[in-house]
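Quick one, T. Sequence first:
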Amino acid sequence: MSIPSSAYSQSINGSYQYSSLLEAYLTKYPAQIEEACQELAKRDFYMQEINYDERWEMGRFLMNQFGIQFEQSEGSELIFSLCLAIKNAFSLTDNNVGKLLEIAISKKYLR
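Structure tokens:
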């Protein structure tokens, strides 16, 4: 499996520009917009340099345990950071996060 770095949203001057897949989901489920923004803010926290090791620990876990290949880009770090945000928000294990990511990939939420 591989994940292109364009599967996430990006923060632009404090606001979010969603990927087309996320935008379609949020259009269908507008009640999720606030929570999506909160999770993306947490993701931004994990993108800070102080969290570099934790971010890459998650990435190595996903690659080694689930065989997911990531592009070498900032996009991969954004995905790792979002995984950490979800892990901590819902008190999940790394394994739970990996399984959720596999489901997202299989359902084509990510390409």
